Amino acid sequence: MRPWILTLFAVLSPLTWAASSTIVVPVRIPLDGFVREAEGWIPVRHQSEWQPLEKSAFGQSLKAPLATRFSLRRSPIEWQTLGDRIEMRLPVVYRVELGVPVIERGLRIGWRQVSYCEPKPGAVLRVETRLELQPNWAIEAHSRPVLDLAAPCRLRNLNLDITPQVRRVFTTSLERAARELDAQIAQRADLRRLAANLWARLHEPVAIGPKLWLELHPRGVSLDRPRLEHGEVRTGLRLLGDPRVSGVATPSPAGPLPALSLTGDAGPASFDLDLDVDLTWPEFNARLQESMVGKVFQTAGNRRLRLTAISAAPNGERLVLEASVDGSFKGQLAMSGRPVVRDGVLSFEELRYSLETDSMLIRLANWLRQDLYRRQFTKSARVDLVEFLGSQRQRLEEALRAGWTGGELRLEGKLERVESGAFELTGESLRIRARVTGEVSVVVMR
């Protein structure tokens, strides 16, 4: 699996074009699969065959044939990532044996140990890998072996230091491991194919609601320099596009993947989007009823009113509240006010009786015209939009995930919050301009 984090820096309006935006897609290539494979192709225990030495071994001419044999036991492989480098560490305990020929009937039939060295634990075999980005969208890995031999290897009874020979043997083995590591990273860092696949998918609309589509329209692409963090190869695709939200899905032709150019770091992954969200009047009134029905209002003379029903309807830039009450006065009241939204809560300013109610009060219950009632009504007439916006956040999150499900690419992630901003009263709904922030991931399944 390779996760890609998709970040949209965009301000979108339904059915209108937004300014050009940069779509940042940090690419993360986990190495955990490679680590498991490395545990397989680097054995935990190893013993070599006897290897005859050259006549000039140990810096002197040998008077008789000699051979060496290596045995090694390693601990679990350790991995570290340091900037643009990755380090594979193999703590080892090893033993080197020196042998002389075993002769029978003039023929050598084997070797017999005459001396050995077995340094104390502390030796570490390392492979350091540096990453380099190529113009052809390839990430090349350049690995080299590094030996940390904590103690020299001296043959017992001979007082002969064979550490240089040990280094040559270990270096030869580590060079093979380094070549394998470079090949494995190159195989996993097939950015061109993945970028071409993603480039095509980003031209497809993503459904984010009923008859609502997010279109990204990418135009250009660049790549951040690769680095290694937390056991992953990380880089970032940047796509310049013209995103919009549309009521009609209109795919745009992808064309070939643009030429690669290098940029700096991609920066943090985040989703920042302005989007209109409609709260229909039946839904609004259900929340208004839940907030207000059953409330009791009091005034001088121990008069009481209990709210039994309430609904709202738009009238220009104001909302008209029609309420049924019983108690000291039984009947219908109508008030209008200018709605305001603060911290996700809709309340009213300049709340006043309608002309029809005002005329009725003059005839029937003039005491209802006291400001005390209006103040109590204004304080109680609130609609909490936080829960509604939270449900919209969940709906958008599910829609985004469902937008790219199946195949090699899957969309997933988390929207941190949906905050209310400006709003508009329409005949069908309270239309809220919401700010959506969070994180969305494009996961590439391999």
What would you say this structure looks like, in words?
With 446 residues, this protein is α+β, with helices and mostly antiparallel strands. The protein has a domain at 30-188. Helices cover 22% and strands 49% of the residues. It has 7 helices and 28 strands. The strands form 5 sheets. Strands 1, 2, 15, 16, 17, 19, 20, 27 and 28 form a 9-stranded mixed β-sheet that branches. Strands 3, 4, 5, 6, 7, 8, 9 and 10 form an 8-stranded antiparallel β-sheet that branches. The model is unreliable at 1-20 (pLDDT under 50).
Strand fraction equals over 45%
Shape: elongated
Structural class: alpha+beta
Give the N-to-C terminal Cα separation.
5 Å
Mean model confidence by pLDDT:
76
State the major sheet: 9 strands, mixed
- Using only CA atoms, what is the Rg? 37 Å
Unreliable sequence segments: 1-20
Helix content: 10-25%
Strand tally is 28
Number of helices: 7
Task: Using brief descriptors, characterize the structure shown.
446 residues; alpha+beta; nine-stranded mixed sheet; 28 strands; 22% helix; disordered N terminus
Short description:
The protein has 446 residues and is α+β, with helices and mostly antiparallel strands. It contains seven helices and 28 strands.
